[in-house]
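ping. complex inputs:
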Amino acid sequence: MTAPLGPLGPLGPLGPLGPLRSVLFTPADKPDRARRIAETQPDCLVLDLEDGVGIADKASARTALAGFAQALAEHGRPTVVLVRVNAIDTEWFADDMAAVAAISFDGVVVPKVERVTDAATVRSHLGASPAALLLAGIESAAGVATCEDTLGRGSFDACYFGAEDFITDMGGVRTPAGTEVLYARSRVALAARLGRIPAVDQIVSSFRDDDAFRADARLGREIGFSGKLCIHPAQVALAHEIYRATEAELIRARHIVAAFESRDGHGGVVSYDGQMIDAPMLTRAKDLLARNGE
Amino acid sequence: MTAPLGPLGPLGPLGPLGPLRSVLFTPADKPDRARRIAETQPDCLVLDLEDGVGIADKASARTALAGFAQALAEHGRPTVVLVRVNAIDTEWFADDMAAVAAISFDGVVVPKVERVTDAATVRSHLGASPAALLLAGIESAAGVATCEDTLGRGSFDACYFGAEDFITDMGGVRTPAGTEVLYARSRVALAARLGRIPAVDQIVSSFRDDDAFRADARLGREIGFSGKLCIHPAQVALAHEIYRATEAELIRARHIVAAFESRDGHGGVVSYDGQMIDAPMLTRAKDLLARNGE
Amino acid sequence: MTAPLGPLGPLGPLGPLGPLRSVLFTPADKPDRARRIAETQPDCLVLDLEDGVGIADKASARTALAGFAQALAEHGRPTVVLVRVNAIDTEWFADDMAAVAAISFDGVVVPKVERVTDAATVRSHLGASPAALLLAGIESAAGVATCEDTLGRGSFDACYFGAEDFITDMGGVRTPAGTEVLYARSRVALAARLGRIPAVDQIVSSFRDDDAFRADARLGREIGFSGKLCIHPAQVALAHEIYRATEAELIRARHIVAAFESRDGHGGVVSYDGQMIDAPMLTRAKDLLARNGE
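pong. complex structure:
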């Protein structure tokens, strides 16, 4: 950061994209999946023109967008539907943007964001839909190196950390434990907080391994992510499970809040269940209850 | 860092705050705890006007400072006694500073430091005690993002990393393993080293779980912290235990130093106990012995 | 980074130093080890004038360089032979550089790089060998803090992360798990990628503990390092073992590439062995095969 920061203020209410516990990616050229998607009700659906679509299918996937939108309207449209276009430097970007601008979606997912000008470049292609929401993908070495700048200017409404692309760019290897991406993943989450936008956590490619998904999602939530990228409809419910507080967490939070309220402003610390609880933990308890509708 | 750094020089002798193996926080309005505190003999005691005191008790806590100082004088005053004031942007800060300036303490703990001007702001309130020592709390997203600047100008004499407040600000969750704060914790320790000041490690809220404290303190020591924030008198002895070298460590260090000395400058590497030992490990062995009074 | 980055482009072919799976350090004053070294065939050999040589032996080690070069010529010279000189600020640096310039080596290892001017300083001493390759050691608090600048200007051809010196400078403790250096190690790997140069991973001092070496090397490879510093000839084969793909990895990569090729550009995602495979994973599979000669 070039300029010193002042206080960020408290974590605000949900941003314009609403909750982002689950952000489900699906190839844009597979509208037959609309029914299954509608059943899972992800917080956000992304119709993918980029990595989910083969290079021989780029044009037909664009054409399929309208049909996918129609199929979603029939089966139950998720609250937020975005389109991921191909990266700005690719031959497909301009045509992708033209296709998106022609149909009514909620916004655009911009992969491999690396420059502070990237958001403006995308907006310049949106023409009639300047209010579209933008979700930035931070998923390369250069993207991580510049994320404090790209995410810190109010240009994007949310971001995700793409561990698979990042580690490919690094020449490394992805593991279930994720130690190899902890630095980058943590740095992106911090940069998003500084930019006052939510960050969505990396995918889990083993789509049949529920426990692997849960463990990875849990660490993401602990770091401060708002939700999880999903690459299979079955992961949506798992993401909601992890980002919803457990009953034990809710009970603990209610007790902590009650303990402080019973003191009416006297006493800055309470002992609860073997822990010293003070102001930041009280704030966390209140945040947890608020995010879970209490 | 905007400007390239030159060599920092070796880790110096103890700073003006002396050893900081244990920095015990206690609410400023509980002078009845002075005797118990005196028994534990923390390296540094912090009388807390901030999170340890309820908002209804802020004024009475200020008034209680003088009595607490008196009680400490009777029971055995720790070598260094500081007062933590409320954060600069709060309604209580100015009155807190006035109360501190009226009594003779060793210095001020400034929570939630985020701007390079914060140290000067605090000093401008100190008036008659310009020589007071300042300990900075780095415990927010913005605080971590700016710590290279805030800690790098000779403004503060020490700092701590506040994991609870930081993760609350991030919207995350604290865990005993602490993976969710490893990035921020490591970054603050590095920034403190660059600023040539000691860094004190995060609290462990489970004050009855000695093994959890030991494990967390051990990792902090490994990263390069100088000691541990304590939120209960019983944690002081544990902090000293971890930051004191074990007998096995001392024996190993003595052997390494002796092996090199016997060579009188010939041979840069010795094999000891299955390890190749060279210059940095010899320096570590000497540092360890020096810090433990040998 | 002060300026926004553009795309880095794909991970290129091997740099001018060739593969760096193993970078073996040996004291420059022990030419009797040439035969054993030649047998292990490290990718890169470093004759060490710095930490591997006692301060009483600095002059004789310089004198021994010519004999070591001769012994290597007899027994089988590794492809790349470098000399590590003492750090720029030391009393030995100028004489070391004069000794290196007088003999034909492939380049110089510069320890404790901390300033953007360090590469130019070394080159100014090289005189007749301006084409010599430079390998930077990032191994101090200041070195890590400035690595984005020092490694990002095309001045160095490769770098290594020196965990032992770094943690000594931090006043910390090294452990086999290495959690205490994960931040610095990851940051250096990222900075090297941004500078488009390979990074060589930290040493394992327990030279008889093969499993410890393997575990540490594996994590380094996962992060994106190109190879491993070795402090004993027996570690060279272990480094090659870890940086060579396993048969299982090769089989998986071949299957992934074949699955995509059979689709001829149609379909951006394939399901393989319970994983969703898309573009970044295909790229990783191709990279793996290419690096293993397929």
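The longest helix of chain C spans residues 58-75.
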